[in-house]
Design goal:
Radius of gyration: 18 Å
Distance between the termini: 31 Å
Structural class: alpha+beta
Strand content: 25-35%
Shape: globular
Strand order of the largest sheet: 1-10-9-4-5-6-2-3
Helix content: 25-40%
Number of domains: 1
CATH superfamily: Glutaredoxin
CATH class: Alpha Beta
Number of strands: 10
CATH architecture: 3-Layer(aba) Sandwich
CATH topology: Glutaredoxin
Order of helices and strands: HEEEEHEHEHEEEEH
Largest sheet: 8 strands, mixed
Length: about 190
Amino acid sequence: MFILVLVLVLGACSNEQPKFTGIDLTGSKTDLQFTLTDVDGKDRTLADFRGSYVMVFYGFTQCPDVCPTTLARAVEVKKKLGSDGQKLKVVFISVDPERDTAELVRNYLQAFDREFIGLRGTPEQTQIAAKALHVFYEKVPSGSSYSINHTAITYILDAQGNLRLGMRNEQGADDYVADLRTLMKQSS
């Protein structure tokens, strides 16, 4: 009996950090103070989404594989979260300010989920937003047009607006759901 009590007491005193499947970015020094415009022309900041868990992904509407795969995964994550899916905001930030008009971003995202939020900005605003999360992107000529190489990490912010996780592109929806549930448990 004494050993059982000792194990329970020591377990309760443990400062063990939660285990995540994604990259734990808790405490990272990032300046998330940037402003972009949503598809309705309203200036938005990430602080606008406090109170929700936020999945942030940088991409572009003409992306052939990573972006649509990421957005399809986000749909699956919301569904697998059940009623907790309502606590999640998915924010897509365009790294192609030249081609990604508000209408194009709106239509692109609505093909996945009408509640997904699209943000875009001038080339300068886009650089600031990308720098905030250390996102790399560059134009790559392709025939008479171009494509864009970009970081394929989905960033997750907790309900207080703190950067918490970086989810790799090769991770599945179940990994995202497990990590989001761990974050949600911490807040309750």
